[in-house]
Every structure is written in C-alpha cells, then in structure tokens.
Amino acid sequence: MSTVDRTPEHALGTLGAVPIAPARRVLDVTVALVLLIALAPVLALLGAVVAVTSGRPVLFRQRRVGEGGGEFVLYKFRSMRTDCAGPGVTGGDDARVTRTGRLLRRLSLDELPQLWNVLRGDMTLVGPRPEVPHLAERYPPEHRWVFRHRPGLTGPCQLRSREYAAALDGRPDPEQYYLTVLVPRRVALDAEFLAHATAASVVRFTARTLWYVLSALWDRGGRS
Q1: Residue 224 is assigned to a structural domain of this protein
Q2: Could you point out which of 179, 187, 191, 201 has its C-alpha 20 to 30 Å from the C-alpha of 131?
C-alpha cells in the first residue's frame, strides 16, 4: 500500500517528488512499448486524418507539471484550432475544438501519443491528470501536494473527463469554476487512488479506461 504525502506547499518548485514503485514502472514501460508498436499503424492513420482535416501541426505539444513540480512536454493529437485563444480549460461544447478533434476527444484517441510520455518516464499509466503550469500555480495550497506525484495517462479524474468538461459549459469564468469546484473533487479522487496505488490497481484502472472509451461508441451525447 502506498502513502499519500499531502504536505501543503506554496511554490511548485519546492515540491519533493514521490517516486512510483518499481513494479509500476516495469508495467508502464512494458505496456507503453507494446502499445506503441501494436498501434503504430493506427497512430500513423490518425496523424494523417488530423493533417488532412485540420492541417498542421498534427501533434499538440504543451508544457505540463510533472512529478515533484517539474515540467515536461506532453504530446497529443491536435484537436483544437490554432487561430483562437481562450481559457486554459476546455468545455464539452468548446467552439475551439475541431470536428475531427471532437471525435478524437470523445474516443480519447487524442491521448494516444502520451504513451511516449509514459515510456520516457514523464508520466505513468494511472495517476493524477497532468496540469498546465499556469493553472497549477493557482491551485489552493492545500491541494498542491498532488504535484508531488507522477501524472497519469488515465486515472479516476480522467474517467470523469466528459462529466467535468460538460460542467464547464456556460460558465462565465470556467477557469475559476475549475479551480474552486472541480479541483477539490479531482484531488480527493486522486488521493483515494494514490493511497492504494499498486500494479494490480493500475491494471484495474486500465480495464476501466477501456470500458470508458468503448462506452462513447454508443453514448450519443458523448458523455458517460
């Protein structure tokens, strides 16, 4: 059983990393490597679809907060337009999302390039959602402990992404709502998982993620 260090911090740069267990790292490398090889044709096809329908760049690169408060470059298939600005959070009906991007997001296919981040050790298979630095710096101090831990490709919060995105629609200040309402909920879920973060629990969450993705195929509203 893992322990969760919830020590509040006032600056991300002062956070101490909580490394994942060796068994989880072995599982990360094995699963990420196998999937990157097996899904190589799918990744190439998705890249081509994004290039044809939305133009370049195909990959979206963004700095995110990693283990111990450091930063890394996260990779996703681009799902949003490049010619418009907006808040740092994305609602379910966000006009910045392209038609292709909406489908990719609904099936979580835009996240597949993050397998490279898992293989590199920037991320783990299951963990807290990787946050953008400018929002991480605005987290309430009592919730910043979550940045001690390695972010995950999936996790309890990622499996509620449709629900959380829908909750942002129509908010006059979606970032403020996200920080004051959704972040405390997310951190509580992360704490519950991290307190029992084992290789077995990673396998269970991976299976739940597959079901979450497949459920979008028959969910006409695109929400779980």
Answers
A1: no
A2: 201
Q: Which two tokens stand for residue 144?
A: 């910043």
Whether 83 is covered by a domain: the verdict is: yes
How many structural domains are present in the chain?
1
Cβ-contact 167, 186 below 8 angstroms:
no
Q: Which domain holds residue 207?
A: 12-215
In this prediction, residues 144-170 reach a mean pLDDT of 90
Is 2 domain-assigned? no
Global pTM?
A: 0.87
pLDDT given at position 212: 85
For the four alpha carbons of 65, 71, 77 and 81, in that order, the dihedral sign comes to positive
Contact at 8 Å (CB) between 46 and 77? yes
Q: Which of 203, 202, 204, 193 is nearest to 3 (CA)?
A: 193
CB atoms closer than 10 angstroms to residue 222: 15
Which contacts qualify for 129-132: CB closer than 8 Å, 24 or more apart? 129/155, 129/157, 129/158, 129/186, 130/64, 130/65, 130/66, 130/74, 131/64, 131/65, 132/62, 132/63, 132/64, 132/65, 132/88
**What average pLDDT score do residues 81-103 get?**
83
Q: Would residue 34 count as lying in a domain? A: yes
Residue 185: pLDDT over 60:
yes
Residue 157 has pLDDT above 80, yes or no: yes
Least confident of 40-54, 117-131, 136-150, 205-219: 205-219
